[in-house]
Amino acid sequence: MKAAVLYEPNTPLIVEELNLSSPQPGEVKVRMAAAGVCASDHHWMTGDAQGPMPIVLGHEGAAVVEEVGQGVTRVKPGDRCILSFVSSCGYCRLCRTGSPQLCDTAGITGATLFDGTTRLSKGKTPVYQMAKVGIFSEMGVVPEQACHKMPDAVPFEVAALIGCSVTTGVGAVINNSASRPGSTVAVFGCGGVGLNVIQGAKLMGASRIIAVDIYNHKLEFTYKFGATDVINSKEVDAVEEIKNMTGGGVDLAFDSFGAAITTSAAVNSLRKMVQQY
């Protein structure tokens, strides 16, 4: 089975043959059908994100189930699945109290499966999987909890994006307790996640959605997802422009880029709010 492996930061991915063992209880063997490329993958390649290596990158994808391990009930062979990069064990304290996205077991086991071992290897060397999925491979073994069955009508390339950028961006808005119809929203960074923050704001009925980026071609594209206004922060002071446009600032601001300058700008673009309890 071929996969793209990263052996150390600041080196190219190497496509090579790996061994893949059978799924253990609670695990699913899948054949990858589509993969998205995210900035998080690049962060591993540059060393900005760190973890065990060698590792198969990729955390945004869709696949077809080939085989299931003992006790798996969520999917069966032949099912088409979105693969989630956030698996939860279902048993730790945080999973049992309604916060599976913060699963303790997932945090402890990292780039291995939930039992702390890998199913990929190169000779006697274990090969890890980014976010327990390792999408940049022909096949893989993933936790049952990472598999979300989808309708046959959904194209694989569309489903792959739901595995990360769509869910992250839309979810950041619709799961935010401060989100209300009629709110004003600013979105800093209009890549895959930012576009889906805009889409989430549109879905929740925001009255004004201001997209901020440094590239005009990206800003133009945001209108397709629901942006009402755009700001090129290379040309103007985005914070001052937002305050002028909204009479003091927005109700909600999202930093989908993740740099100090964008986080600061997002916070400073907010209006004064009274916390409701």
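That was protein one. Protein two is written in the same sequence-then-structure order:
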Amino acid sequence: MHMTDRGLLALVRHEGIVPGLYFDVKQVWTFGIGHTAAAGGPDPATMPRGMPADLDAGIREAFRVFRTDLARYEAAVLRAVKVPLEPHEFDALVSFHYNTGGIAKAALTRHLNAGDRAAAAAAFMGWLKPVAIRQRREAERDLFATGHYPAGTIPVWSVDRNGRVDFSKPIRRLTEGEALALLRPASVPIPRPSVPAVTPEPAIGWLARLSAFFSTLIRKA
């Protein structure tokens, strides 16, 4: 089971995109779309600081790392949850786990595995540190309970060499279409079998055969 396109967009919108090394709210070195060393390589602490010289390349790298991370978080949710899930429920749980890393120990998972979806939805609000995360947690709870997906553009933020993100104004906003193209890059086209080239016949040879054909008709007449 994998996140839906709308679920992916919601998750990236929650995280935002910082195409450089930055400190998160817990003062942990982070890169791109919420990537930390806890998710595996690359270790953000070893990456160059400041904004990339090529912003587009930096954004593509952020999405590349995110796609690798996402597979781990999806797998962790599937291991922890023992009951069938609707796509919007899975989307909400992966978003929650991507942010908290707590799917295996969360009360919401215990409630869900016990068949109490209402209690599971309410338990999303047991994870409110830092306080600024409340709006995201409410959105994840509502997505889990009702299938309501947020919408809108996705911000790209700048960061200085000290890891401080400038949240005053995004330097770019990605449309949903642009983000999806980066989330699900097109597969490499399968090359078609080569067809031997046909060498064009010189015009003089074609005219010579045509002349011979008409000469034959005249003789027969």
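The first helix runs from residue 5 to 15. Keep this in mind for the problem set.
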